[in-house]
Chloride channel protein (Patella caerulea), 1446 residues
Amino acid sequence: MATDSIRKCWRRLFSCLSFNRNSNETVPLLRSSQHGGHNVVSNKDYESLDYDRCWNKPYLDYRERYEKQHSDRKLEILQWIMTFAIGFLTGMVALYIDLIVKLLSDWKFGTVDKSILQCSKDGCLVISLLYLLLFNVAFVIVAACLTIYEPVAGGSGIPEIKCYLNGIKIPRIARLQTLVAKSVGVLFSVAGGLFVGKEGPMIHSGAIIGSGLPQLQSITLKKINSKYSYFRTDRDKRDFVSGGAAAGVAAAFGAPIGGVLFSLEEGSSFWNQKLTWRTFFCSMAATFSLNFFLSGIDSNSWGYFYLPGLIDFGTFECQSEKTTGCHLWSAVDLFIFVIMGFIGGCLGAIFNTLNKSLSLHRMINVNPKHKIFRLLEAILVAMVTTTIAFVSAMTLGQCRKIPLKPSIINSTRSSVELTVRDYFCEDGYYNDMATLFFNPQEIAIKQLFHQAGTFSMPSLAIFFILFFFLACWTYGVSVPSGLFVPSLLCGAAYGRFVALFLEQVFGYKTVYSGTYALVGAAAFLGGVVRMTISLTVILIESTNEISYGLPIMLVLMVAKWSGDLFNEGLYDIHINLKSVPLLEWDPPTEAARMKAKAIMDSRLKVVFPQTRVASLIRLLKTTAHNVFPVVTAARDDCSAVTLVGPSQEADLQEQDDVECFVNQNNSNQDGDGNPIELLQRNLPMKFEGMILRSQLVTLLKNHAWYKENVEVCSISIRPFLKL
Amino acid sequence: MATDSIRKCWRRLFSCLSFNRNSNETVPLLRSSQHGGHNVVSNKDYESLDYDRCWNKPYLDYRERYEKQHSDRKLEILQWIMTFAIGFLTGMVALYIDLIVKLLSDWKFGTVDKSILQCSKDGCLVISLLYLLLFNVAFVIVAACLTIYEPVAGGSGIPEIKCYLNGIKIPRIARLQTLVAKSVGVLFSVAGGLFVGKEGPMIHSGAIIGSGLPQLQSITLKKINSKYSYFRTDRDKRDFVSGGAAAGVAAAFGAPIGGVLFSLEEGSSFWNQKLTWRTFFCSMAATFSLNFFLSGIDSNSWGYFYLPGLIDFGTFECQSEKTTGCHLWSAVDLFIFVIMGFIGGCLGAIFNTLNKSLSLHRMINVNPKHKIFRLLEAILVAMVTTTIAFVSAMTLGQCRKIPLKPSIINSTRSSVELTVRDYFCEDGYYNDMATLFFNPQEIAIKQLFHQAGTFSMPSLAIFFILFFFLACWTYGVSVPSGLFVPSLLCGAAYGRFVALFLEQVFGYKTVYSGTYALVGAAAFLGGVVRMTISLTVILIESTNEISYGLPIMLVLMVAKWSGDLFNEGLYDIHINLKSVPLLEWDPPTEAARMKAKAIMDSRLKVVFPQTRVASLIRLLKTTAHNVFPVVTAARDDCSAVTLVGPSQEADLQEQDDVECFVNQNNSNQDGDGNPIELLQRNLPMKFEGMILRSQLVTLLKNHAWYKENVEVCSISIRPFLKL
């Protein structure tokens, strides 16, 4: 079983290198232009990014010339400036998203609020619902249209970034166009009342900025194309993308350290001290440029930095009357947290399983059809979500007393008290369900974390169940949609429910319900995404409370373990659904005894150090691979090709080099005989190195060939192989 | 120039692999027993740890058998249990160090305090000084004796851990004996009034626990030697040492995330997601087990966790009368911080240069002499330090008013007010110099961070200068001595001085002096150790104030840059002084065009796949290398050895394989002819793999040879090469 799954995964990977017998269609020389259409990309289309430095003679010569003109110092300074610019711009994009979402939400809730207050007297609530539906559907249509125009802008973007940093080129993932579609689309999907977050899209935006900005050119807008040509290798881009993604996390959660760890945990299959430091700088730049503007806009006194990030979970403070008896958590709570973590992991696994089935269904039944169906699905989700939220808030909510007057207590709490919704309740009372449904999600989370007044157990349970299924349905609809904040909100309701349960059923009185809400949020989010160290740090930084480290970590660990019993994290599920050949950190233990030939299922296309131009062009046109192994043939019938040069090749004539190799190879193809074996040391074929498609194309474009005789031209590849 | 330094560094490294012509002395088969003596180790004695997994046939067979008995799951659970145990024990060691140091300090200061209060009336201050001297010298003698008994227990231990994690085996670094010497010695060096910290030794202790505990055996105490034999490879040890070191940082500073990043930044040349998570778990275990006991002992109500770590910088809170005008820092301050960072870097560079000269002097003039001189130096340092501190506190301190009554204000500040020293001052006044000198360093730091009453500028300047030079002299004396807290204290005085300067000279009134003290501390510590991301995180975690992230990072970055203009970080300086061949993250750019032969200065000793026992034993006895390349000779005169097996070797007779290779090679040794070239593909010698000394010894011990003829036995190495 396990070997099968490795075989499946590795085969997918190796298929990048191996020759696909059935594909005889002609492909363009440089393949990137192939992905112009909006089809669902099949796994054959994934190629790897060139993260390896190719040290060959021409490159070293180039470097030597280059270094004379540009000192390393200058390049380093440029790198740092670019890093700052990426952080700054990511912060600004996050700021813009946050502000516009707030504006749109305020507009929407303001209008609807007025209507509800009026209608609760007049009994015209259906009109309020229609208002709300109108807003939400209109917003969602904008978001869905943008996503249908640019499909990779859908979803959270985190799986895609994970793949990119893993070294897999996913088409159009880092285009300016995607950035626009994503950062505008997310405004409307969040403001449209869908149960989605804006954090994932912010992270994706940061990654796109990281990838695009240092190049000062754009494929989308061809006019942006400067002469400035630093940082255009995949390797440089990757480093900047790490920084940009980290900056996105940092801006979204006010968590610069968490951002760095996110980049490392989710993405980087590499680790480098300098890169980490630069990534950290980028995160910090994003956090503090955002903080600067946010604080300035908020208080109109510029130059101070007191609003740490877009998500601020507020200060957790115990305010019991008995001054000593109140603690945020104690050793006894830890045991309960472990159980909560276990349940959270299971809930997350259920969420993932449901979402996986839904996504599969979507891939098979919705996506292949006309685009209009995707739009219709988004509208349907918006309508159902809105109606359910409205109806349940109006009919199922309970009126609870607001416990303290806002003026007496500290600022965090008073701001919490100000956001309660008092629909259909007397003065001094609030509707608990409406408070959760009729607020932006961040505010609802704060309510669950800090609202001293209780929510009723039935309200919490109903809210959790409704939110759980609706969020599960929403993730994957073609709108930009983050996963973090909805999961946190869902989990916070679960945690708060547990606290109430313990208090009311078991009479466990020293519960600080805010801590339970936080732990529940961590447990559920951990169960869904299965991130570990970075999520812990993000949550610690968002709460700005180091003493929550142990409970959060414990809960995330347990949630990951219990969730892993059932399935993978949601991001990995979506990566698998897209058939991306992601390479995990560790190969499966079974792989230790396996050899490459066990998973190779088709033959390699190879080139020889001296290859004829005609055959090279034919090779490039008939295969889709981005890299070719270069071999020399030591056997007599082919040796002329490699050992003695073109003048003695007369006997080969029309039969070109590659075919020579393939034909010769066919003779001993009995059953599982495999050409890769020929490349091994003790057989006539010798592996000399690799050459990229792009390098071959460059050679061809520059006419870097020589005349073999009147009709035949050849290219000498050897100098371009790795040293 | 640069090439020279690479050459020097790499040559040192390659000397591990290469043959030293001049060394003809006989060495024991397994070299670890050689390091029994206490000599200063020369660079020839450093060997690398075996972090590479050696996948060969016998190992895979062994694994297969092993996996049938022990499931991976069981091993993983064991790993996690061990990780927790390491964290817990490290936390306990830190707790014990902290408590005993407090006890000893209280005893000392209690006695001396009483004497001073009495003597300031009676005029017998010399007697107080004698009391203090007696205490300090006695304590320092204990510390110095322990260090002289076990020299690697001296210093902070961080350079040694850095080397260990880099893959270099430094003798005796991870022994139980070292742990005892270090953890007992540090009590007395800190309590003895030396300007040293206990954090470095805590980190070293954690690393030793990490290395030793999972093996459940000890070289020091031979009786501890269980049958249990997991986790004994260098690779496993390394992973646990990472965890232990991180746990040490976590316990010392209450900074679990900082601990993980410390392990990564300072140590690990590898990065692995799982390992990071385990390291984080270890840190958390240390932080919270320490926290649990500390909180329990402090308040006698067990089960709560409110004392975050041993070092707690207290809460930074602005308590100005004008409620809005007070901020911890503003954008304007940032510019000043950059300048402070620059100066801090320069000060750090001066500190490092002075300490380097001193250490060199010590290595040449003190260490080779009798041990008594090292003891005498320690006593001298203790006496000078004590006398200077005493005299300057008594004569140069100024009486300042205590600004607020302790009862009114919050707990952090009130505890700060309680630790002022009022020697020779009226009621309500305190002696500022005595407050800095006659308190444990952590409390002095808190004074500088939070004391609302001012320190006078002359007092701060004098304190800084005295402390700077004394701390510089002390680091390297043979006592266990950390560097973090002294540097922080020194830097805090510098920062506080700058704040006062800005306030009094430039009339810059919105300065919050605590922030300046913190920034100064970061600048100076950063200038000395040149750590970046981990130090930022450690300081953020210690202050529990995320909003200090930007200033701290900025200052550390500038300090590192300005310091790097002059010299390396202090840890690196000490590593270089010990001639440890540490491999940096990035090779120098000049190395890109270099080939190995440019830095090889002597010939390799090689073995053949079939080697005779006699020649193998001779090889092991005459060389000190821990690893040998295995080659096959393809040339006619030697080919018999490798290609056709022993029976056809008759013509070689007495001349053994290795010599055959060497002789044959001598013929084309003209000038720079180099045998490494022979190992290249296109020359007659072919590189087959590597084999470790330990593997060869195991083969020999197990008589794994076959009879070639009546007299000659051979060993077949091939199955043990890497697959």
Remarks:
- Chain A has a mean pLDDT of 77.
- Chain A touches chain B through 58 residues (CB under 8 Å).
- The longest helix of chain A spans residues 72-122.
